[in-house]
Design a protein that fits this description.
3 helices, about 45% strand
Length: about 425
């Protein structure tokens, strides 16, 4: 099957390998030690490429907090033949529980063929069966992420999320004159590209369900307006038929509609717009500020924030409107709700007693848990498997600046993402195709 320029042939064994297991529901987890030696060079493949692919795979796994990669300098064995028997005693000697072996062969037409195998070192058995990926050389990082996804999925039983992208606001300059541009990067911070210039403030980029388009808000005309960009052509569509200010857009799960806030005559309500016909439906009708709508994964409901009760709180309503039901009842104010891809949780920003938090609650408002606390944490976005959240944190003071962080839904393993500039307002793509 041709998927995004990469050929993938998958074959799995029915054999069960019970020795390696990770309980990803617990708050404290001892990472599984994994060894990812440099892939074997075949043909004219460079040593640098084979080492870098192994490094990307190891880093993907390590960032989950569920695995810890053993540095290559600690390896006893050197894999020089992909098909040779594995010397398991050498890997057990350095306490590796999981071993990833692979090979890379360059072809004459500028492509590479990547094979990999996953091994349970303790039982000395292969976990599943080998996989082969073909693609152009410039896709080597995507292939590496796909290998890491396969390892992660086989060991944890969770859906993958490494072969994804992040759209965000890249920021530069002093705090009182910050330049903002839309940018796109891989989930690990690599391959950053700019999507817009820095002449206008941009906010709230959001991916379409197939990751081919983004919605965002721009002040290009002097007031907030929603735009749609095709990521392949970079062609931008303006919604000129929207009267008033428009902002906080988000796609429906089928990609056919968007929900957004529109302010007219001093009142802000939520609307749904059919992207093909432009037909507009008003979903809320209240003198309060209704904003930040987000669909449930099945498209049947919308969660949003509103101050209709006297302060910012989270409400849920049917996707076609109707009477909203409040679900947040803790101390403080609640903002930027976003429904989990699994459908079981809503993530949010909470402001209470001078602190900002990223938290999650069940869709009925129960079991609220705060995952972070700082001067300013805001804008949660879900990984496509619903296991990890990304958000941005801004530091205090005149030199304060935003950075992007990730955290597991359990509240553990918070990590700062390395970016080439200040970064805010991230949105996580679905798995790439």
């Amino acid at each position: 099957t041709l998927i995004g320029g990469i050929w993938a042939g998958l074959a799995f064994s029915d054999e069960k390998v019970p020795r390696i297991s990770i309980n990803v529901t617990e708050g404290v987890i001892d990472p599984v030690l994994v060894a990812v030696p440099a892939f074997v060079q075949e043909g004219s493949t460079s040593r640098v490429l084979t080492s870098e692919m192994a490094e990307v795979i190891a880093n993907d796994l390590s960032r989950t907090g569920l695995f810890r990669a053993i540095p290559e300098r600690s390896h006893i064995s050197r894999i020089s033949n992909f098909n040779a028997p594995v010397q398991f005693t050498d890997w057990r000697a350095i306490n590796a529980a999981i071993l990833v072996t692979g090979s890379v062969m360059a072809t004459s037409d500028g492509k590479i063929e990547v094979k990999f195998r996953l091994w349970d070192v303790v039982s000395q058995k292969e976990i599943g069966r080998g996989i082969k990926y073909d693609g152009t050389v410039d896709k080597w990082r995507r292939i590496s992420h796909k290998v890491a996804d396969e390892v992660y999925q086989r060991i944890t039983g969770e859906d993958p999320y490494f072969d994804t992208q992040i759209v965000f606001v890249a920021e530069s300059g002093p705090k009182n004159d910050r330049k903002k541009r839309l940018a796109l990067m891989d989930q690990d911070g690599a391959n950053r590209v700019f999507l817009t210039g820095d002449q206008s403030i941009v906010l709230a980029p959001r991916f379409s369900p197939n990751a081919s388009q983004i919605l965002y808000t721009s002040y290009e005309t002097g007031k907030p307006r929603v735009y749609l960009m095709d990521l392949k052509t970079k062609r931008v569509r303006a919604f000129n038929n929207i009267d008033g200010m428009s902002f906080a857009p988000r796609f429906s799960p089928d990609g056919r509609r968007m929900v957004l806030s529109i302010t007219r005559d001093g009142n802000t309500d939520i609307f749904a717009i059919n992207l093909a016909t432009g037909r507009r439906i008003k979903l809320t009708d209240d003198p309060a500020i209704d904003t930040a709508p987000s669909f449930s994964p099945d498209g049947s409901k919308i969660v949003f924030e509103s101050d209709r009760g006297g302060s910012q709180q989270i409400y849920v309503m049917e996707a076609n409107g109707g009477s909203p039901r409040r679900i947040s009842f803790g101390d403080g104010r609640y903002a930027t709700p976003v429904w989990s891809p699994r459908g079981d949780l809503v993530a949010f920003t909470k402001i209470n007693r001078g602190k900002f938090h990223i938290g999650v609650m069940r869709i009925d408002g129960s079991k609220e848990r705060l995952l972070t606390s700082s001067f300013l944490d805001e804008g949660p976005t879900w990984a496509p498997n619903g296991r990890v959240l990304m958000f941005f944190r801004e530091t205090a003071g005149a030199a304060g600046a935003p950075s992007i962080y990730t955290i597991d839904v359990t509240g553990r393993n918070m990590r700062k993402l390395r970016t080439a500039s200040f970064a805010s307002d991230p949105a996580w793509s679905p798995l790439l195709k």
